[in-house]
C-alpha cells in the first residue's frame, strides 16, 4: 500500500464531494479518482461516512488552532488580536479552499456530525472570540455591542466567499484562491473591525499582512 494513498483518497473525496455531493459519490468513485483499491478506503476510514468525518476533524482541528494562534496576541490588545484571528482564518481557508467549501456546505445540513461540531469546535470558537470582545470593551478599545451579533457578522465575512464561491467568481469576478483576493479582502475586514467595533478617535494600527 503506497504511503501517499491516504492523502490521494482524501483529495479525491474532497473533489468528488464538492462536485457531485456526498450522496452522489460512491466509494468506487473515490477509489477510481485516487487510483487505489476500494479496500484501501475501508482500511483507513472504514466507510464513506468515516472519510467525511475525517475531513471534518482535520479541518476543525486546524481551524481552532488558527484561532488559538491569534488569541495568543491578546496581550498586544484586543484589536490586534481580533485582526490576527481574522487574518489566520482567512488565509487558512484560502489555502484549503476546496476543503473549506465542502465543510461549510456540509455544516448547513442537520446531521449528527454537525451537531457534534457545534457542541465542541464552534462553542470553543465563540468562547475565544467573545473573550476578545469582552477584553476590548474592558480595556476601552471596543464600543459595547451584542457579542453574539458581532460574532455573526465576523463569521459571515469570513465564510461568504467560500460558501458562495460561484457567486463570488461568476458575479463579482473575484477569486478567493488568489493571494490578491486574500490581501484586499483582509483590509476590508480590518476596516469593519475599526469602524464597527473600535472606539471612535482611537489610533488604529493595522498589523502587517502575512
Quick recap of the structure?
This protein is mainly alpha-helical. It has helices at 5-20, 27-34, 38-45, 48-71, 78-95, 97-106, 112-138, 147-163, 165-170, 179-197.
Sequence-ordered SSE layout with sheet pairings:
Layout: H1 5-20, H2 27-34, H3 38-45, H4 48-71, H5 78-95, H6 97-106, H7 112-138, H8 147-163, H9 165-170, H10 179-197
Model description:
With 210 residues, this protein is mostly helical. The chain has two domains: 46 residues, Arc Repressor Mutant, subunit A (Orthogonal Bundle), CATH 1.10.10.60; 143 residues, Tetracycline Repressor, domain 2, CATH 1.10.357. Helix content is 73%, strand content 0%. It is built from ten helices and no strands. It is elongated. The termini are far apart.
Amino acid at each position: 500500500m503506497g504511503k501517499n494513498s491516504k492523502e490521494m483518497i482524501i483529495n479525491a473525496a474532497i473533489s468528488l464531494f464538492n462536485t457531485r455531493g456526498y450522496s452522489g459519490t460512491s466509494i468506487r468513485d473515490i477509489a477510481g479518482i485516487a487510483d487505489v483499491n476500494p479496500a484501501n478506503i475501508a482500511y483507513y476510514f472504514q466507510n464513506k461516512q468515516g472519510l467525511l468525518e475525517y475531513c471534518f476533524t482535520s479541518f476543525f482541528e486546524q481551524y481552532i488552532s488558527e484561532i488559538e494562534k491569534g488569541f495568543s496576541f491578546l496581550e498586544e490588545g484586543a484589536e490586534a488580536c481580533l485582526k490576527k484571528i481574522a487574518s489566520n482564518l482567512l488565509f487558512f481557508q484560502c489555502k484549503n479552499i476546496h476543503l473549506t467549501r465542502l465543510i461549510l456546505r456540509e455544516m448547513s445540513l442537520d446531521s449528527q456530525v454537525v451537531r457534534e461540531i457545534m457542541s465542541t469546535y464552534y462553542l470553543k470558537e465563540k468562547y475565544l472570540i467573545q473573550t476578545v470582545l469582552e477584553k476590548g470593551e474592558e480595556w476601552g478599545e471596543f464600543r459595547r455591542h451584542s457579542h453574539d451579533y458581532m460574532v455573526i457578522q465576523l463569521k459571515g465575512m469570513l465564510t461568504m466567499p467560500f460558501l458562495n464561491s460561484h457567486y463570488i467568481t461568476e458575479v463579482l469576478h473575484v477569486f478567493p484562491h488568489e493571494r490578491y483576493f486574500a490581501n484586499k479582502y483582509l483590509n476590508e475586514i480590518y476596516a469593519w473591525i475599526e469602524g464597527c467595533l473600535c472606539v471612535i478617535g482611537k489610533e488604529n494600527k493595522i498589523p502587517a499582512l502575512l
